[in-house]
Amino acid sequence: MPFAVYVLGLAVFAQGTSEFMLSGLVSGIAEDLSVSIPAAGLLTSAFAVGMVIGAPLMALFSRRWPRRRALLIFLSVFVATHVVGAVTPGYEVLLATRIVGALANAGFWAVALVAAISMVEPAARARATSVVVGGVTVACVVGVPAGALLGEHLGWRAAFWAVALVSLPALVAIVTSVPDERPAATTATAGPSAGVEAPPTVREELRSLTGRRVLLTLLTMALVQGATFCAFSYLEPLATRVTGLGAGWVPALLALFGVGSLVGVTLSGRVADARRSVFVVAGMASLALGWIALALSAVSPVAAVALVFVQGMLAFGTGSAMISQVFQLAPGAPTLAGSFATAAFNIGAAAGPWLGGLTIDAGFGFRSPVWVSAALMGLALAVAGVARLVAVFARVDSQKLQLQ
Between the N and C ends of the chain, which has fewer C-beta atoms within 10 Å? Predict the structure, then answer.
């Protein structure tokens, strides 16, 4: 695996830390900037919305840029927003930096995914994708707890400074290791041995991404991530008010989920390329059963702790394989495929917690988000089944045309 792919994973680690660390900094931000806790919580929502909107927009904006230049610009803007956020005395400016930072993050993600698969042979694409996505899982294990500790002892601004500082080595490494190739050098058969062809137009890329199988796969991905973040967002009240664990267990559980996620993307990168479709379907079915098991056995500390690890492993292992599946199904969209996958991921990340919150507000208790996760996985499996039927019918039609 090229060193540059691991560099991209390092940058994603810093960005993933920024995306999720606010969950442990909300109270400090609210007190320091004299706003309500719900207003401080909007900073997380603003970042998610920026990611959804920014992924396709930034990919379109930068599609003609050399990849190294695009990565450097997006990461530099991301660093700048955290420096401004760390020194600002006002909530409005901080909110603006979260939106701009999310746009830069979305652009980086979209380019990084394409750059990673372009630097490896087709047989290693799932592994390259897992290395980049693995940056998020390491952020869950290390970055988010570290940000919470910094916020507790040195104030929330210290966490913002830390994200900016961690990003600097990635900036230097991108300059020295990522090829400065233009998108035209990557085609449907991207890889070290691929030839140079004219890049597809925006209309051609969008046509490739609006095929029924691609759209169904993106919808499935959003449902899977919605299920993941629905349960993950309410893990603290589930553990403390249903399972009966003390508050001191919560950071350990979050870290355990992150460790499971890291194991999942690592395994996915090693085995998903061979039988990607089978791997994804098996992972989704296991996730559905796992959320049901967690909802039923949440009162048992042993079962809850074990399932937190298992579900983290299944969720991110399946999710990273689905990202590479989007690239496989849309070879005619080398620039926009990563951005659409990023947008689908973040739609799920935004919708899942909202749906889980609705059930809690309705009085169904703190297990209810886990049941919502199970229901979302049921929908995901149904959509995946429809996508499979579409593929079968398309294959039959193709065979009929060949016979004619």
Answer: C
